[in-house]
Amino acid sequence: MKRMGMIFRAKANKALDRAEDPRETLDYSYQKQLELLQKVRRGVADVATSRKRLELQLNQLQSQSSKLEDQGRKALALGREDLAREALSRRAALQQQVTDLETQHQTLQGEEEKLTLAAQRLQAKVDAFRTKKETIKATYTAAQAQTRIAESFSGISEEMSDVGTAIQRAEDKTAQLQARAGAIDELLASGALDDASGLARDDIQSELDRLSGGTDVELELARMKAELAGGSSAQKQAIEGGQGGQTPAQQPQDTPRFDKQ
């Protein structure tokens, strides 16, 4: 089972390597970094919004505190110490809220500064990655094009291999058809096959053609013997005169046959 699992993982890894395009992987990584940068920017915006709300609340509390202070002064001026004491008590409570809000405001402001700095650094990294990504993609594309051109010239690419295979099959089929046509012509010439056109060869004519071919061979052989023996021109003419199908040795035997008739 371990061996089967290892084989399966090896084949799956090989299939993934073939299917993987580094350019697509780089684009996907860049997209993920952009999404992370957007999240950081949204975080900065959220913290800034919270800080702004605290500032508005602080402004309102400080305005109320100033108003209560004025009311206490007026109450003292009118001889209403009790009203002045109430106004100052409320102002003291508001001041405690102001202090708490100011502490939160400082905390949010610090977080905002940190997130802003992180966003700027991340932006710089994303920009650098984008530049590197485009450089790698351009280099990969150029290398891929060079490899395809080299494979095309060497004939080892899949496309050129398919073309070469098709050409080889066409040549083999052409040679087979030529051989078959030659074999059929020889069989027709020898009479082993009947002519499909319906014009059957005459057996007598075939035999005459065969005998005529044999006679031509005998005549040629006699001519060569005469040349080698240094025969006279008369002998050569006698040999050539026998092309009608009779040799000089046969002529004396034919004459008595005509006399008897």
From TrEMBL:
Signal peptide: none annotated. InterPro entries: PspA_VIPP1. Residues 44-139 form a coiled coil. The keyword Coiled coil applies. Keywords: Coiled coil. The lineage of its organism: Bacteria, Bacillati, Actinomycetota, Actinomycetes, Kitasatosporales. This is Phage shock protein A (PspA) family protein. It comes from Streptomyces indicus. Pfam families: PspA_IM30. Residues 228-261 are annotated as: Disordered. Belongs to the PspA/Vipp/IM30 family.
